[in-house]
Amino acid sequence: MGKQTIVGFRQTSFKPQDSDNEIRGTTIFVTAPQDGVTGLAAEKIFLKVGVAEAIAPIVPGMEIKVVYNKWGKPDEIEVISRPKP
After folding, report:
1. Does the predicted model carry a pTM greater than 0.85?
2. For the chain, which residues make up each domain, given as ranges?
3. Within 10 A of 37 (CB to CB), how many other CB atoms are there?
């Protein structure tokens, strides 16, 4: 997917069913144009701690491009632009 715009975020933590280890990160909510959608498509993306920290501070209005690893998980975020204060 191409450029996406962050419209919101929240800190997230959970324990997988098969483990007692807590997983922490940030869930971002993004919008982007998509074929077959009138308006913008929306989705949420979980970022592990290291990936989220690399683009801190996260603010609504940021435009990003997500790079996924071979398992389809977000591995890197490229910040295209940040909103002006």
Report:
1. yes
2. 4-81
3. 10
